[in-house]
Amino acid sequence: MKEQITQLICAALQDLGEEMNLPGLAGATPDTSLFGAKSLLDSMALVSLIADLEDRLAREFGRDLVLADERAMSQVRSPFRSVDSLATHIEARLRESSGS
């Protein structure tokens, strides 16, 4: 499941890169930074990515998730720091919502 989520995030980043003229996002990998000094995203682009991902996840998995909720924002290590950390966060949320 995590690989499928990672591919979904990378596709969203590629689309966002095309939309915002950020060609560096086209080759997103699990190590791609989403937040912080090494990221190509500013805060508004990150918000756009999160909103897009919530829509894509609803279509792909049939579940509505809020990714930037209080629980995510209060973690010591942000789940938004990289593609991999976000994929791990999303996978955990999907498992919780399915009761697995």
Describe the structure.
There is one protein chain. With 100 residues, the protein is mostly helical. The chain has one domain (2-98): ACP-like (Non-ribosomal Peptide Synthetase Peptidyl Carrier Protein, Chain A). Helices cover 58% and strands 0% of the residues. Helix 1 (2-20) packs across helix 2 (43-61). The longest helix is centred in the first third of the chain and has 19 residues, at 2-20. It is globular, with a radius of gyration of 13 Å. The two termini are 13 Å apart.
SSE layout:
Blueprint: H1 2-20, H2 43-61, H3 70-73, H4 83-98
What keywords describe this structure?
100 residues; mainly alpha; Non-ribosomal Peptide Synthetase Peptidyl Carrier Protein, Chain A; 4 helices
Number of domains: 1
Helix/strand-derived class? mainly alpha
Uncertain stretches of 5 or more adjacent residues: none
In CATH terms, what is the fold-level topology? Non-ribosomal Peptide Synthetase Peptidyl Carrier Protein, Chain A
How many individual helices?
A: 4
Helix content: 55-70%
Shape: globular
One letter per element, helices H and strands E, the order comes to: HHHH
Brief digest:
This protein has 100 residues and is mostly helical. The chain contains 4 helices and no strands.
